[in-house]
Amino acid sequence: MIFFWAFVVGGLICVAGQLLLDKLKLTPAHTITTLVVVGAILDGLGLYEPLIDFAGAGASVPITSFGNALVHGAMAEAEKNGLIGVVTGIFEVTSAGISAAIIFGFIASLIFRSKG
Q1: How many CB atoms lie within 10 A of CB 11?
Q2: How far apart are CA 48 and CA 71, in angstroms?
Q3: Is 14 in contact with 45 (CB distance < 8 Å)?
Q4: In order along the chain (116 residues), what is the average pLDDT of each group of 10 residues?
Q5: Domain spans of the chain?
């Protein structure tokens, strides 16, 4: 049943993004930013973790989860280190994913050639 709910919740997040693109005529950058901010707000309100518990990858894979990770890391570090923890927490939580994207992007650029 977890696969069903992951599919439904992940699909609804994607539908929301597509509606932002189509109906509000937002650019892809504005749409992504909006979804990240929505994820951050939901985590700040304590609503995103229960969604992840319910839907699993359906809530932890979409871009809204990035906003959740930012706020979650910032809040955890703020409790330990005060105001400076807000900044360090954001970098600590997201650094592995960003570093992996940079490294794998670089490796891909060495292996593959641009067709342009």
Answers
A1: 12
A2: 11
A3: no
A4: 91 92 90 88 89 88 81 81 78 72 84 76
A5: 2-111
Secondary structure (DSSP) of the chain: -HHHHHHHHHHHHHHHHHHHHHTS---HHHHHHHHHHHHHHHHHTT-HHHHHHHHTHHHHSSTHHHHHHHHHHHHHHHHHHTHHHHHHHHHHHHHHHHHHHHHHHHHHHHHS----
Distances from the Cα of 62 to the Cα of 72, 76, 86, 92, 105, angstroms: 16, 22, 23, 20, 20
Amino acid symbol at 101: A
What are the residues whose beta carbons fall under 8 Å from the beta carbon of 51, sequence distance 6 or more?
9, 42, 59
What does the DSSP assignment read for 102-113? HHHHHHHHHHS-
pLDDT of residue 6: 93
